[in-house]
Design brief:
This protein is of the alpha/beta class and 350 residues long. The protein has helices at residues 16-27, 46-59, 75-85, 104-114, 152-159, 172-177, 189-197, 225-228, 238-258, 264-273, 276-280, 287-298, 306-318, 320-334, and strands spanning 6-12, 34-40, 64-68, 90-93, 99-100, 118-128, 135-139, 146-148, 169-171, 202-214, 348-349. The chain has 2 domains: 6-214, Spore Coat Polysaccharide Biosynthesis Protein SpsA, Chain A; 236-337, no CATH class. It is 43% helix and 18% strand.
């Protein structure tokens, strides 16, 4: 049996109203060498989702598959299950309430064929509000297509940018080879996979939009037993951001020491250089709470970097909304996000 080039994997929990539009965006692609696997994590809406997906399974002669979990595994374990179920050469990861951008599969296939040592595609994406025709932001990281050679450069370039998962592309067999349950409850299983894959495989950034992200979605982490003591569904208070960021750094340190690749310090500094979003996420809190969050977050290793303090004081003085307006203005002027981490610059490209 010939393997498909791409396996679209979708971990989901209960979002029956979003799965149809997502699958419509999959079927609208101008590239046919794909399969799609959806794993529903034992929500009360599972049978409703199963029925919706069954219609797409029939329309695609079985290329869309559904896995209904008997118990709630949680994000990381469900992701790991999807990797195991996938039959494609590469994983195309999607969130259950986002959309595949037009032409994304063809762009991924072109990149895979062009770079034989490819381990991951670092993608551009757009953010929409309401419907995908209402784009409010476009995120690109570099002026054009570029390559990050296997090892620290590839890992650091992708690590923080893979926090949001939709549209990322990963080598399936290498992902399966490092399967583990040790990060269940972290919400960042894709970081473990990417860091290990990119030890031996290159990362390639392409400026093609690969996914449309929905703005304003409600987080549902905290439903599974592995997550219940760590997260509360529907909210993300300061301690949740601290826990999530701590997990990100813990995975980086584990790869650093266990695989003997010096990445933890660079990832820590890169995160500090781009810590605006994490800080801004809690800027609505009363000043004592926000300042305590800044201190606590800094203790994870970021307080030794000037950029971390600069972002905090910019938010404190000018307000998060005004700082964000400035960031978006610079992005629009340049056409991409400025690179603040010299060690994450590509080896080649435009």
């Amino acid at each position: 049996m010939t393997r498909p080039l791409l396996s679209v994997i979708v971990p989901t929990y209960g979002r029956w109203q979003d799965i149809g539009p997502l699958l419509d965006s999959v079927l609208a692609q101008d590239f046919d060498d794909w399969e799609c696997v959806i794993a529903e994590d034992a929500s009360p809406n599972q049978e409703r989702l199963r029925t919706i997906v069954a219609g797409y399974t029939a329309r695609t002669n079985g290329r869309v598959r559904f896995q209904g979990n008997a118990t709630t595994l949680g994000y990381d374990a469900n992701f790991r299950q999807l990797v195991a179920l996938a039959q494609g050469e590469f994983l195309f990861v999607m969130g259950d309430d986002d959309f595949v951008a037009p032409g994304a599969f063809a762009a991924a296939a072109r990149t895979i064929r062009k770079y034989p040592n490819l381990g991951a595609i670092l993608r551009a994406f757009a953010v929409f509000q309401g419907t995908p025709d209402h784009i409010v932001q476009v995120n690109r990281y570099y002026p054009g297509e570029c390559v990050f050679p296997a090892g620290p450069k590839a890992i650091v370039a992708c690590y923080r940018r893979f926090v949001a998962m939709s549209g990322i592309v990963l080598h399936r067999d290498l992902a399966q080879s490092v399967a583990t349950d040790r990060w269940d409850g972290s919400l960042f299983y894709q970081q473990w996979l990417a860091a290990n894959i990119l030890l031996t495989r290159d990362a390639v950034y392409i400026p093609d939009l690969m996914a449309y992200f929905r703005r304003g979605g409600t987080p549902i982490f905290g439903t599974a037993a592995a997550e219940r003591a760590l997260f509360t569904p529907g909210v993300q208070p300061p301690d949740t951001d601290l826990r999530m960021t701590g997990a990100l750094m813990a995975i980086a340190r584990a790869v650093d020491t266990e695989r003997n690749v010096r990445i933890a310090g660079q990832i820590e500094r890169d995160y500090a250089n781009y810590s605006y979003h994490t800080l801004a996420h809690q800027a609505h809190e009363p000043w004592p709470v926000f300042k305590k969050f800044y201190k606590d977050l800094g203790r994870l290793g970021f307080d030794k970097y000037a950029a971390y303090h600069a972002w905090f004081w910019a938010i404190a003085i000018f307000g998060a909304k005004n700082v964000d307006r400035g960031i978006q203005f610079i992005r629009r002027m340049l056409g991409y996000t400025p690179n603040l981490s010299s060690f994450a610059k590509p080896a080649s490209g435009t």
